[in-house]
Amino acid sequence: MCNLYRLHAGAAAIAQLFGASAGPERNRLDEMYPGSPGLVVAHGEVRTMTWGFPLAMTGRKGQPVKPRAVTNAREDKLTSAFWRDSMARRRCLIPVGAWAEAEGAAGRMTRTWYALPGDAPFAVAGLWRKTDEWGDAYAMVMVDGSAQMADVHDRMPVILPRAVWPVWQGEDPVAARALCQTWPGELMVDRTGQRWAGDLPGNAPQADLFG
Question: pTM score, two decimals?
């Protein structure tokens, strides 16, 4: 799963790279974590949305509590009620510079970052929808991890080459679903000593229920 990624480029730079128009950009950090704002490309426009579909939660006594941000949509769950409508009608591109996974023993986990060779942001397959809780929200689509990250995690985001961006954003969900494949190319791996959740304001990266 992915519950932390980074993107240093702003909306104008992403618009130029992705051939889209730049919409208004809310204040955001360079590192995205569950429930934080991030950039997506939807319907030809770079937009700011909240990362994670809200999942209603209740407390021990049945009282409503803050919704949980479900950031990841497993490829084998895309036909479930939670994701089905977004997969059919609202697919987007998520610009990513690198994503992180937690590595190490519990309580001492550190961030291991994965990226494509080069400095340019790449596109990850995403879904989005309107929500009453957070406005427009998005999630990443996940598949089996590549051999390069097998010792850290068994899932990774769906990375989309530029040539298939129109297919992912097009009208055919079957053709789009066929793009949900493990990335076959090289990944750049950066194992750091930075604590997994120690330096984030507000929410910290956390496991979600669907990834």
Answer: 0.92
